[in-house]
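hey can u check if this looks right to u? its 193 residues, i copy pasted from the old doc so theres a chance i mangled smth
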Amino acid sequence: MDVTFERTSRRSYAVEVHRPGAPTVRMDPAPGYDDHFPHDLQHFVVEEQLGLTRGIFGRIDQGGSAATFHLVTSSGTNARATARERRRLHAREHQLRDEPSDVGASERATYVAWYDWLGHHPDPAMRARATDMKPVAGSILDRLAPDERDRLLAALPRICARVDELTTRWSQLEVGGRMTVAWSPRRARHAVR
């Protein structure tokens, strides 16, 4: 599965997912724009590095929509076929809701990883952002189950290295620019509750 992050305007972005043998899905606009590290890029990195195969991108990889992505249709597409694909996507998303989920773990890890990355950034303004985030990040870490906290803390250096790689690419994009990243979670694991 390939995930494309597109800078759609000066302060917005979109995410498009190309899945082998399945229709393309897109979220536009995507939430949580940031010049350096947009929110869904944060989820991508955290889920990839922690092996969260039942988070946002894992669910899309399993044929769902993560309840926020929509089917991409091209002009000239048969309306009946499009409607059938939309029903399949909706049905699959409904099935996935009944399965264990890593979405909560992804949200928690995303905040902590963003805080950690900002806290190690060479730019003082970025480190100041981390200072503002410290109470919430600390609260999240304090409330995590010990095994979830240990996995996250052990993964932070790897997460930050991947963030450095991808944010460098992202920050160089002009409006209309796109970057595509292959979804390849580190290893499959069971859902974190």
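Residues 188-193 have pLDDT under 50 and may be disordered.
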